[in-house]
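Assemble and predict.
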Amino acid sequence: MTIKDVAALAGVSLGTVSNYLNGTRTVSPDTRTRIERAIEVTRYVPNRAVRTLRGNRTHTVGLLVPDAGNPFFTEIARGVEDAARGRGDVLVYCDTAGDPERQSLYIRRLAEMRVGGLVISATASMPPDLGDLEAVGTPIVVVGGEEMALSTSRVTFDHHLGGKLAMRHVLDLGHRQVLYAGGPGGELVVQARYQGALAALDERGLDHALLHRVDATGRSVRERSELADEIMAMRPRPTAVLCGNDLIAIAIVNTLIRRGWSVPGDIAIVGYDDISDAQLAVVPLTTVRQPAYEIGTSAAKLLFERADDPATPHREISFVPELVVRESSRD
Amino acid sequence: MTIKDVAALAGVSLGTVSNYLNGTRTVSPDTRTRIERAIEVTRYVPNRAVRTLRGNRTHTVGLLVPDAGNPFFTEIARGVEDAARGRGDVLVYCDTAGDPERQSLYIRRLAEMRVGGLVISATASMPPDLGDLEAVGTPIVVVGGEEMALSTSRVTFDHHLGGKLAMRHVLDLGHRQVLYAGGPGGELVVQARYQGALAALDERGLDHALLHRVDATGRSVRERSELADEIMAMRPRPTAVLCGNDLIAIAIVNTLIRRGWSVPGDIAIVGYDDISDAQLAVVPLTTVRQPAYEIGTSAAKLLFERADDPATPHREISFVPELVVRESSRD
C-alpha cells in the first residue's frame, strides 16, 4: 500500500495526505478523520523511519513515570493521553522505577524514536542535558522535581504545604505521637513534606520529637504491608501515620484491619495523592489531594505549546495541595 | 557530539560502536557497558531516525495492554521489561482501554516508530493484518485472544477451565445462588469462563439457573464499587460471586465491609488473576491464578526468538489456571 492508495480512499489529494503526515499544514477535523480511516483500511505504514510524521517526528508523546503500578501515575498518563489524542497523537510510556539511570536510558531511547515530545515525571535526579534534547527538537515538560534547577517547562507542587496540611490536621485531632512514613519518591520530595510537617509543630510551639520518621521506599504491596506490621510493633506506638502516598496508606489500613485493629480508633491514617481508590477503600482515606488527571492535561498543554512553537517561553504550572478529610482520621 | 566521541570515550573502535548500534555483531557485556556509559556521558543521540539501532530498528519493545490501571498488566509489563533489559532493550507501553480501534492505531504508531517487536495483550478483536506487519519486520506476540485465528506466536490461557475451577469451589462449599460478574475484557474470554462455570454445574447435574450473570465492564474503582451495591440489592441474593478480575473482587469486598456486611459470612467472593493485592486485601482473596510476571517473560521469549531469527516458527505457550483458596470464600 502506498500514500496514493490512502489519498484515493480518503478522497483527498496526495498533497493533503502529505500535509497531514508531515504536519506542514493543518487539515480540517473531517479530512483528518477520513485520512486516518484510509490509513487504517489500507494498512499503510510509512516504510522507513525517516518518513515518519510531522517532519522528522512521530505522532507520539512519550511519558516517563517512576511507578506504573501506582494509579496516581496511571491517571496522569490518562490526562496526557486524552490531550494527545485530541491532536491525533498517541501516548507511549515507560516505567523508570524511580531509577535515575534507567530514566536517562529511557529518555535517550525515546529521543531516538523521534517522539514528538516528552513528559518526565521526575525521579530523585534529572539528567543535566534536557535543554540539549530540546535544542535538537524534542520538547520536554518535567512534572515535579521542584528543588532542581531545570530549563524546561514544568508542572510543580508545594510539598512543604502538603506536609504541613497533613500534620496540622492530626494535631487538630489531638494526636501527639505521629509517624511520617515518607517515600517512595525523590528524597527532596520526602524531605520537603517532612519539613512542612515540622513547620506545623513549630506553629504551635510543639516539640519536633512528637514526629518520628521512617522511610517507605518499597513499591510492592508486600513491602507496604510489612511496614504496617513494623508500625504496630513500635514503642511508643504512633497514634497517627502520615503516608508518602495513598497506596502505602491503603496497605496499612488493610493490614491493621486484618489484624483486628481499628482505623482510626487505634491509629489514624492519612494518605497522599487522593487516587480514586482512596475514597473507596475499606475505610475511606483522609489524604492530601493532587489532581492527577489535571496534572496530566496541564503537562500536555505545556508540551504542545512548545511543540507547536519552539519559541514559546518555558512556563510553569503549580498545583496547590488540598486536604481531603474522610473516615480514616476522624472518629 | 558524534559517534567518534562515543568511541573515544569508550576506548573502542568506531566499528565496535557501529556494531553495537546496528546490532551487526555481538559485543561483550563489558564493552557494551562502556559504550552505553559513553553514550550517556556524551549525550550522543543519533540525529536521524534512519540511524536508529539494529539496522532500521530501535532497541525498543512495544507492549499494548487493555488496562494499564490493573496491576495484572503492570506485572506482565514488568516481566516483558526485565526480559528486554537483559538484551539492552527498553519497554514502551500503551493503554488501548480495551478498544479495538485504539489498538489498531497504537499498533500502527509503534510500527512507524520501528519498535524491535510488539507484545499485544488482545482486546475483543484483533486487526487482521498482524501477519503483514511481521512480514515487514515487526515480530509480534499476542497474549490471549485464544478464540481468534491468528498467525503469530502467542501466550494463551484456558479460561473455560478457570471458570470451572472457580465454580466447582463454591459449589463444594455448598453455595447454590451464584453470581458470575464477568468482564471487563473480551466477550470471548467472559463467555469462555461462563461456559466453564456452567460445565461445573453439569458435572453435578445441577440446574444452570443456579448461576446468574452480570457483566462488569467498568474499569474504574467507582464502577466496581457500584456493582457491589447492585449485588447487595439483588433478590434472591447471591451467596457467592465469581469476579472477572481481582480488582472487581477487592472493590466488592471493600464495599460490603464498609456497609457492615461480612465476607465470606454474607457473601463469598472469588477473584481472577491473583495480583499481589489479592493476598494482602483486607480479606485475603480466593482467586484463579494467572502468573502475570511469567506471562510477560514468556511473551518476551517468544518475541526475541522471532526477532533474532525470523525463520523461527510461530510458537504457543499455554498457562493452566490454578485455584488459590484464601479467606474470602472459606469460613
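Residues 50-158+292-321 of chain A form a domain with the Rossmann fold fold (CATH 3.40.50.2300).
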